[in-house]
Write a structure and sequence with these properties.
- By secondary structure, this protein is of the alpha/beta class.
- The chain has two domains: 1-119 and 181-250 and 344-401, FAD/NAD(P)-binding domain; 121-179 and 252-339, D-Amino Acid Oxidase, Chain A, domain 2.
- It is built from twelve helices and 17 strands.
- It has helices spanning 7-10, 36-47, 80-87, 89-112, 133-147, 156-163, 183-196, 244-247, 265-268, 312-323, 368-384, 403-437, and strands spanning 23-32, 52-55, 71-72, 122-127, 152-154, 172-180, 200-202, 207-211, 217-221, 224-233, 251-260, 277-280, 287-290, 296-303, 333-343, 350-355, 358-362.
- The strands form two sheets. Strands 3, 4, 5, 6, 11, 12, 13, 14 and 15 form a nine-stranded mixed β-sheet that branches.
- Strand 13 (287-290) and strand 14 form a beta hairpin.
- Helix 2 (36-47) runs parallel beside helix 7, helix 2 packs parallel to helix 11 and helix 4 packs across helix 11.
- The longest helix is centred in the last third of the chain and has 35 residues, at 403-437.
- The structure holds flavin-adenine dinucleotide (FAD).
- Residues 32-38, 55-58, 62-65, 67-71, 206-207, 234-239, 242, 255, 257, 287, 299, 339-341, 362, 364-369, 372 line the site of flavin-adenine dinucleotide.
Length: 438
């Protein structure tokens, strides 16, 4: 099995080594990519009695799905207000509801297949780095009114008493719908569940070519080939070039995670008081969680350049110490790693059918745990002829992502946003200091 050196890889549950595909095979559906988009589609098809072969270039969960922040929550990378403006409230609600159903399905699958991916602690705190109480109140009310959510406003004093003691935080909102899990163990659990439902999974089986124009599709790897009536492309940000119409529609964007060594509980409690998911409202903010053993899994940063930056562990530790300076000398990095997400220009998932028998599910951005589950269900329903709910995503097509120019533009937008966020945070911290000095 090949995985990057991550906390998740070191603590993964034991599973079978799956062989590469060799020789000639046939299936009703051939799925390319063994992240959660591919695995969920495979499980949903297998459960419908459809014969499936899934081909993964490395190991299942090798990509973003097995190395992410482990937050499972509702919503998309694109803001709901933008979806309402563009599609109207009913359509936006239908899309949002899908992610609610998906988080419930993830929980059900953990139970049904006894997947050891805990702790599955519930709750998310989203803090602000600026003095934005009015904006938060407005957002909470707007979400409750239009999407029926129940998030609560947490004033800054209570943020410190109940959740986290940080000099950079102002007020926050808290929601109890998001939960956390061990993403790689979840992937491995879904892979086993899919196999139990009859799916054949081959690892070390990178797809190098495809013929998709004829009714019978041909999918070729280094050592074998599959003939199938349907192919599904779920390669995330790792699959450049397999089918250019599909892979050219996503922008691979790198983001980073580190795991600290366990921090003694009394020291940790001077910083993090409640071990829920934590994030902030900046454009590329931090996302992190403390585990029961005192370890912090800390995620953040984004770059359009995929290569791992030098001194990644130091950069991530600096970010942590900016939020929790009291942990200096206590927080030590155990490992740090990069993951590649796939984004579309419209920042929504691309789920649908390119032409007869050619399907895709990609561009889940930074919120893929629920949305890849949505993709799995909708693609399986579409392929089996059970529904055409995948058409809810028709407004979000395979627009070309701009290749290298798209990457440069994305990096420029990120840096500009980052500078604006930092300036606003500095301004509001200075104002807070000045008013507390009076
Ligand atoms: C560091 C990080 C933190 C994140 N945190 C969160 C979070 O907390 N919560 C959340 O909801 N989302 C999070 N995300 C986003 C989420 O992980 C992704 O949106 C989701 O996992 C995408 O799944 P996928 O199946 O589309 O892609 P991937 O998981 O990347 O899977 C694609 C797979 O396709 C395989 N592949 C590629 N090309 C080929 C080929 N030619 N032949 C065969 N196989 C191929 C790859 O090897 C890979 O395994 C995070 C992402 C990253 C990188």
């Amino acid at each position: 099995m090949s995985y990057p050196n991550s906390f998740y890889a070191r603590t993964r549950t034991a599973g079978p080594d799956r062989p590469p595909m060799e020789g000639e095979h046939e299936a009703e559906v051939c799925i390319v990519g063994g992240g959660l988009a591919g695995l969920n589609t495979a499980l949903a098809l297998g459960q419908r009695g459809i014969s499936v072969i899934l081909l993964e270039a490395r190991s299942v969960g090798f990509g973003a799905s097995g190395r992410n922040g482990g937050f499972v929550g509702r919503g998309y990378s694109q803001e709901l207000s933008t979806l309402v403006d563009r599609l109207g409230l009913d359509h936006a609600r239908a899309l949002y509801d899908l992610t609610g159903q998906a988080t419930a399905l993830v929980r059900r699958r953990i139970d049904d297949h006894a997947i050891a991916c805990g702790p599955n602690t519930t709750g998310v705190l989203v803090a602000t780095w600026t003095d934005k109480a009015d904006d938060l109140h407005r957002y909470i009310d707007w979400m409750a009114q239009n999407f029926g959510t129940q998030q609560r406003f947490v004033p800054r004093e209570q943020v410190a008493e109940e959740f986290a003691i940080s000099p950079v935080y102002f007020d926050a909102l808290y929601g109890d719908q998001t939960f956390q899990f061990h993403p790689l163990n979840y992937c491995l659990g879904i892979a086993s569940a899919a196999e139990a439902a009859g799916v054949r999974i081959f690892e070390d089986s990178a797809v190098t070519a495809m013929e998709t124009e004829r009714p019978e599709k041909l999918v070729v790897t280094g050592r074998g080939q599959v003939r199938a009536r349907h192919v599904v492309l779920t390669c995330g940000g790792y699959g450049l070039g397999v089918l250019p119409d599909v892979s050219g529609a996503v922008l691979p964007v790198a983001t980073y995670v580190m795991a600290t060594e366990p921090i003694p509980q009394d020291v940790l409690a001077t910083a993090i008081r409640k071990k829920v998911c934590m994030a902030d409202t900046r454009r590329a903010g931090d996302y992190y969680r403390a585990l029961p053993d005192g370890r912090i899994l800390w995620g953040g940063r984004m770059t359009a350049r995929i290569a791992e930056p030098p001194r990644l562990a130091c950069l991530m530790l600096d970010d942590l110490l900016t939020v929790y300076p009291q942990l200096r000398g206590h927080a030590r990095v155990e490992s740090a790693w990069t993951g590649t997400m796939s984004y579309a220009r419209h920042r929504m998932p691309q789920i649908g059918r390119l032409r007869d028998g050619v399907w895709y599910g990609q561009a889940f951005g930074g919120s893929g745990m629920a949305t890849t589950t949505v993709a799995g269900e909708l693609l399986a329903e579409g392929i089996s002829g059970q529904s055409d709910r995948y058409r809810l995503f028709e407004p979000f097509g395979l627009d070309w992502a701009g290749g290298p120019f798209g990457r440069i533009a994305a990096q420029a937008i990120y840096w500009t946003g980052q500078m604006q966020d930092a300036a606003a945070a500095r301004r509001d911290r200075r104002a807070r200091k000045a008013s507390s000095a009076v």
